Amino acid sequence: MSNNSDDFPPPPARRPRYGVDAPAFPAVTGAAGLACGLAAGRRRPGSNAMLAAATVLLAHTGVYLHTTLRGKLRVWERELGRAGLKGDERLLDMGCGRGAVLIEAARRLPRGRAVGVDLWSGKDQSGNRPEVTLANAAAAGVADRVEVHTADVTALPFPDGSFDIVTGALALHNIPSREGQYRALDEAVRVLRPGGQLLVADFWFAARKYAAHLEEGTLRGLGPGYWYGSPLLGITLLHAVKGGRRRG
């Protein structure tokens, strides 16, 4: 019997795991849907209403989980492809979490750097810890071009003009005050070089406020693949170029 390691297939590579956004939300809607379904099965007065409620709640939960586990990854793959990266840029991801956007960006930066900042709230994303993000980067084969920092996005610890592109995915609305959200936007613009790109995805109603504050950039809905349960919680992308003009 040969002991040559070439005789055996290599172990499968571990894939990055990005967790669930705001995990309490689908847990609650899913549990409520199951409860309504059980109530409908008892064939009592109001069963039809309970069945309808169960259908809506479980469908909402399914759409939510698809977005957080698959849909948003595909959308960011598309949007980063549209950004026209050359591969040597410095990118900052605000509220990077477990690295979904950060790592997709790093794949496109073989000669660049992808930097993530977060306060690592488990309420906003399950299992949100810096060591998990770095492990995901290693699993994706991009650990050499990724770094993470514990930092508040309203006071970024970087000099002016440090980055070619700044991204953010559903991070800013977690800041409790509108003033704090606007400070984070101002910080993002501050650390961008002239001509650098800002790509911020958030709920449509939040993204409109961000665009009004910056007074520049474009807004574009990102489609059903980025609905957190329904169109009422759909995601819009704000794309701005530092020094550019508002185009709509």
Automatic annotation (TrEMBL):
Q: Which residues form the Methyltransferase type domain?
A: 92-199
Show the segment(s) annotated as Disordered. Answer: 1-20
Q: Name one Pfam family in it.
A: Methyltransf_11
GO BP terms: namely:
methylation
InterPro entries, per the entry: Methyltransf_11, SAM-dependent_MTases_sf
Q: Which Gene3D superfamilies does this chain map to?
A: Vaccinia Virus protein VP39
Q: Which keywords fit this entry according to its UniProt record?
A: Methyltransferase, Transferase
Q: Which GO terms describe its molecular function?
A: S-adenosylmethionine-dependent methyltransferase activity
| Name under which the protein is recorded | Methyltransferase domain-containing protein
